[in-house]
Amino acid sequence: MSDVVVEVVEPSSAAARAAVAAYLRELDEIFATGFDPEQAAQDELEFTGDRGLFLVGRSGVEVVGCGALRWLEPGVAEIKRMWVNRDWRGRGVAQRLLTRLETEAARHGRPVVRLDTNAELTAAIAMYRRSGYREVPRYNDNPYAQHWFEKHVH
C-alpha cells in the first residue's frame, strides 16, 4: 500500500480517463440493468475548477483507483466515481481514497460529504458504514442508486 500515491489530476488526463473507463465497464458488468456510460459524459466538466476535483491512485504508472468530488451547494460535496481495480482490493486503497476525498472536501470548505450507491455494491456500502457514513433520504435522481449516505468531516 505504501507504494500507492493518491493525487489530484485533471479529469481529462489519460490516467483519469483510464480509471473512469474501467469503472464504467465494471458497473456495466455488475448491475443487473447494465450501466449507461452517458451518466459520466460530463465528468471532465463536473470534477474540475470551481465545480470539484478528481483523484487518481497509482502504483508506479499503473492506475489502481479513483474518486471524485463535486460541489453540490455551499458546504456540501458529493463523492462520485469511487473505484479500485479488482487486483488491488483488500489492500486499503479504497479507504485511502475515501479519506483523501474527505480531507479535500473539508479543505475546500465542504464539511458535509454525501454519496449515493447501488445496492449491488455491498463491499462499498460496508466500507461507507464503517467509515462513519449514515444513511439519509434520497437527495438526487440517480437512476442507479438505492442508498444515499452523508458524513460530517472536519
First-to-last CA distance: 25 Å
The chain-level mean pLDDT equals 93
Q: State the share of residues found in helices, binned by percent.
A: 25-40%
**Overall number of strands:** 7
Low-confidence parts lasting 5 or more residues at pLDDT below 50?
none
Strand order of the largest sheet: 1-2-3-4-5-7-6
- Which word captures the global form? globular
* Derived structural class: alpha+beta
Helix tally equals 4
Write the H/E string, N to C: EHHEEEHEHEE
Biggest sheet details: 7 strands, mixed
Backbone CA Rg: 14 Å
Strand content: 25-35%
Task: Give a brief rundown of this model.
The chain is of the alpha+beta class and 154 residues long. Helix content is 29%, strand content 32%. A hairpin with a 2-residue loop joins β3 and β4.
